[in-house]
Design a protein that fits this description.
The chain is of the alpha+beta class. The chain has eight helices and 18 strands. Strands 1, 2, 3, 4, 5, 6, 7 and 8 form an eight-stranded antiparallel beta sheet that branches. Strands 10, 11, 12, 13, 14, 15, 16 and 17 form an eight-stranded antiparallel beta sheet that branches. Strands 9-18 form a two-stranded antiparallel ribbon. The longest helix has 11 residues, at 153-163. The termini are far apart.
Length: 321
Amino acid sequence: MATYHSGEISVQERAGLAQEADFSGGAIGATVPPVAVDFLAQQPMLVIGAADREGRLWAGQLTGTPGFLRVPDPGTLEIDTLPLPQDPLYERLCDPAAVTRVGMIAIEPATRRRMRMNGRATPHGAGLRVELDQVISNCPKYLQKREYRILDADAHADADVDAHAEGTGQGARRVTDGTALTPAQQRTVRRADTFFIATAAARAGRGDADASHRGGNPGFVQVLSPTRLCWPDYVGNAMFLTLGNLALNPDAGLFFPDWDTGSALLLTGSAHTVWDTGESARTPGAQRLVEFSVSAVREIDAASALRWSAPQYSRFNPPVG
């Protein structure tokens, strides 16, 4: 797993960045380095991507008090929580008979540090145990600086009650399902400065999964229609792990966090890379574009007890046209 697969190599070559990719490949390993053990122990959130029981890819979040992520040995990550029952990945990740290929990314917005990990997850106690295949150090470009706080249990329970759907009972989280973005959800996407994307090298959960961060100034994600999104692919580390997966398998999942309310907007569908230089030239900073077609939407209110400060935008963010 510590080498590039055919999809990644084909994208690197098409982009003319194979030499740069070889250099960046030195950041890909199979174990967690000692300095990263402390980093993971300090995080309150882990983004995770995987296929659900139907084979659809989703990205979402696992949250907890710092210390909920542990590294008992350099090749293993233990997570002391599971997705919410309302999360599309809950049933798959809780299945004691399933070994689920997962992509994960831990980010620390306050310091703009992040770390990606890919591996095979199984239920473990009240959480997950992940045998790691890839551990990847990432650069801090396009990551907005934020500080977090954790609501106390009573405040989070009140948030649940405020968000619950009529007739679902006290403390129930409101879940909105659909096959297209509502006008309010479209506004959420348009004002986003961050989202996360899950991809995999093969369909139906049979290929190695990956979760990655995408950031930019608000408006960098365009809503072309209620079922079509587009965003620029900015200059990066030349690995093309996401676009390489899409070259082999168009399935993808997106997660848009609401930093203010803790709500989560989750999308699943398919994506492809637009290589037309004329198209990308119309978007500042774009080396190429990625278009995403929505097949299903799930919005979960009060999905997290984390609340984040207003962002300090990355100086690397290109302007939005």
